[in-house]
């Protein structure tokens, strides 16, 4: 294990009806809140009304900003920052999935500083202060409910970039699995694919002696796969929804990366796909990650052999270890297909290869020339992975 | 999963030389510290000098209170409280193992309140304020470095009681595996036994649908057993020491009990043993827990079948599920013996059965009549478990 710090102070309030506690929680931080959300589903389901009522009961003045789309846009972030500044709002409450939470985090980073918030994503500056953030999660997967990161899309420059800051971890996150009953099968599956990818970005590491955390990674991957089918096919199965919701949180709260160098190459490679084609991030990862594995596993085959054996119960073939890896990959692909996730760029609707060169170029450029740590990939490697994923 | 809250804001600073950061960390909370420790080993090793130096470099005034013994005593807690009050000390820094940290927590609970701190342990009152606590851990196992609990022995009443308070989680804990190189084999093994017990107290639950957390429990138990031998027989094996240190933290930071009813009967039953015989808590658990399993597994055999299969790779016997459990138990006992832990009260030096009646009586009495939740055990059950463990 490498030297490392684990610090995750997000208070997670888990279970049925927990959204009714939101007023009490927000009141600990202030009396004015920006209520930030996406489209109409939180309104239609009555969730937003319950939230408003709880906030009102705690004498909190509510300012609202809806309209967050998946792959959340910088323009709306600017709008939120302006609202918070002009009204002296000191708390941002996100009600929604990862996109809403990421947008809320960016607003919280931008509001109390005089910088252009986009400079943080360009890695030119870091936020000196950040407003406290709370979340009520409705779509598990992104893990933003207790992570320190956010991803925002700048439509003008066609860039989709990430910013991480320890101060951006929500102070509380409310996770009620019932609120996920209405998540459609496709988005449920995309969330699961995303969560598995969050674990694999940490699992495939060059760091040696990572036994306990490895085993924890494997257990959460298995748990996600074990409960995926029920959560998708029986959308009101509370138990399966609860398992998935909790596993998605653990997958990205930092614990599973403790003491090791993480990779994050596949995420960067996927971000280019969803920036250009506006596909769901988890679906994009479902096409990219298998290709990444195929491309890089020879760098350190034992990582992938262990993964195949412990996550997918593949028998070790002493005479042909590569077979073991390929069987693991086959089962991973089989799982993704079983939950109707795309496993190629064509499945995602990319019908023209000519765009791949530009994507690879942009991906390398946006990330300072290379992506990844387990495998350091330059533009030509990224292009090869797009090719494999096509 | 049951409704539950996960909130663990302890910042864990992990790795080589991390004790040198202690001054910076304490300075965030104040300029006067009670440096609390045990016997001479932290002095002899030079650790205390490094700590003093780091605190001094951060302009922190240091007051010292050493002398904590295993099964930490209430008398010393009172002394610490008096020191903190008379000197206006606002931070308690524990340098040592679980006993030192528990003692520090009790001092931190007692200082800012006018109550007798023992009333918290008698469940008559709760602390209204608690001083911030930091730790530099030297003996892994108890998990006190990021738990909310503490156990203190009142020699006058011969009671060993626990108190838990969310405010008692250390604000930071420094975990440098090198500091554990000097932990003798017996105490290393006792710590590992304790950590496995912390997981099993959570794992054996009546709560249904606990899949993901179950798997995480299993992975940490396996990790502890996988690395135990190396940590014990090659005391300067950094990698094994690091795995054990991290696993012991995870075992008791609350994560592995998320969304479930926990048991804690074996701990209460063991506390009576170490209160009377002053044996190491982890060694006591090594004698008590197997007896507890034997006594209660029929309440819900599938929990124990799963444990046997997933933690100990026992093959499931469809025609004789009990065999599966007994094989698991046999392998658990085999593991404990392999690390030279006692597996009976006689191994612990209890040579006279006549004391068992009184211990069972006291155990029930101290815990309001019964112990445990998975299995609710009254005095006669506790007596039976002592008998099985004899």
Automatic annotation (TrEMBL), chains A, B:
Entry keyword annotation includes Oxidoreductase: yes
PANTHER family named in the record: ALCOHOL DEHYDROGENASE YQHD
Domain Alcohol dehydrogenase iron-type/glycerol dehydrogenase GldA: 9-177
Protein name per UniProt: NADH-dependent butanol dehydrogenase A
GO CC annotation terms, alphabetical: cytosol
E.C. no: 1.1.1.-
UniProt keyword annotation of Plastid present: no
InterPro entries cross-referenced by the UniProt entry: ADH_Fe/GldA (IPR001670), ADH_Fe_C (IPR056798), ADH_Fe_CS (IPR018211), BDH-like (IPR044731)
């Amino acid at each position: 294990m490498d030297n490392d710090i684990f610090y995750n102070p997000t208070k997670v309030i888990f279970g049925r009806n927990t959204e009714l506690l939101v007023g009490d929680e927000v009141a600990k931080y202030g009396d004015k809140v920006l209520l930030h959300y996406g489209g109409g589903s939180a309104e239609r389901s009555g969730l937003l009304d319950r939230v408003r009522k709880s906030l009102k009961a705690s004498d909190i003045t509510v300012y609202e900003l809806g309209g967050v789309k998946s792959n959340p846009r910088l323009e709306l972030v600017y709008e939120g920052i302006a609202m918070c500044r002009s009204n002296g709002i000191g708390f941002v409450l996100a009600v929604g999935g990862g996109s809403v939470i990421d947008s809320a985090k960016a607003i919280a980073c931008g509001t109390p500083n005089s910088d252009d918030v986009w400079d943080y994503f360009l890695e030119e500056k870091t936020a000196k202060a950040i407003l406290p953030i709370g979340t009520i999660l409705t779509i598990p997967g992104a893990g933003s409910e207790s992570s320190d990161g956010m991803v925002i899309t700048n439509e003008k420059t066609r860039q989709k970039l990430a910013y991480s800051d320890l101060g951006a971890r929500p102070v509380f996150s409310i996770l009620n699995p019932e609120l996920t009953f209405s998540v459609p099968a496709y988005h449920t599956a995309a969330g699961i694919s995303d969560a598995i990818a969050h674990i694999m970005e940490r699992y495939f590491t060059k760091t040696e002696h990572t036994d306990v955390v490895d085993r924890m990674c494997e257990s959460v991957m298995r748990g996600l796969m074990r409960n995926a089918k029920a959560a998708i096919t029986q959308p009101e199965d509370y138990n399966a929804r609860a398992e998935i919701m909790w596993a998605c949180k653990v997958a990205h709260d930092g614990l599973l990366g403790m003491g090791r160098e993480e990779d994050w190459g596949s995420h960067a490679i996927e971000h280019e796909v969803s920036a250009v084609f506006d596909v769901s991030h988890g679906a994009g990862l479902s096409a990219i990650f298998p290709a990444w594995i195929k491309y890089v596993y020879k760098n350190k085959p034992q990582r992938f052999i262990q993964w195949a054996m412990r996550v997918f119960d593949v028998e070790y073939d002493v005479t042909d270890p590569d077979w073991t890896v390929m069987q693991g990959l086959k089962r991973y692909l089989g799982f993704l297909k079983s939950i109707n996730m795309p496993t190629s760029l064509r499945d995602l609707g990319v019908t023209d290869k000519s765009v791949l060169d530009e994507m690879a170029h942009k991906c390398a450029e946006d990330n300072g020339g290379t992506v990844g740590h387990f495998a350091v990939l330059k533009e030509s490697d990224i292009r090869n992975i797009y090719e494999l994923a096509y």
